[in-house]
Amino acid sequence: MAGTHRITITLTPGSRGELQRVVNGIRDQFGREQLIHVTAVQATGEAADGAQARVLAEIAAERARQDARWGEQNHPDGTGAPADETAAATARRTCEDNFRDGKGTWRDIFLEEVHEAIAEADPVRLRAELVQTAAVAVNWIEAIDRRNGPGEKD
């Protein structure tokens, strides 16, 4: 039975050529019988490059795989406990200390963002922290790809 997947892709100058490759990759992943709706959105602000478009397309494809396997999920957030605030403060200090000492890593930045998100009880602030966490993850993946070339697909 054919399913429907809706994916939004941000198009930027120079990334339009990526769109067809992304759509073909999604169809290859889920089968040509799948109905694929692609909404193209022009980015505002600083343009993303083709590398970022590829990473975001991989993330969109992973989200589609998750939905196909688990369906829509609606769990409690489970965030905002006092111990979470302590862990966020510790992660923040560790990140700052490591960068001050010239030893900072992507792990430090990512863990700081994750812990800050987990510490938030307010849904609006939690969402903002999760966006920051996702942005750091995308940036880290881009850095890996710059060092090693784009990763192998599962």
From TrEMBL:
Residues 66-75 have a biased composition (Basic and acidic residues). Residues 77-89 have a biased composition (Low complexity). Residues 66-89 are annotated as: Disordered. This is Uncharacterized protein. It comes from Amycolatopsis cynarae.
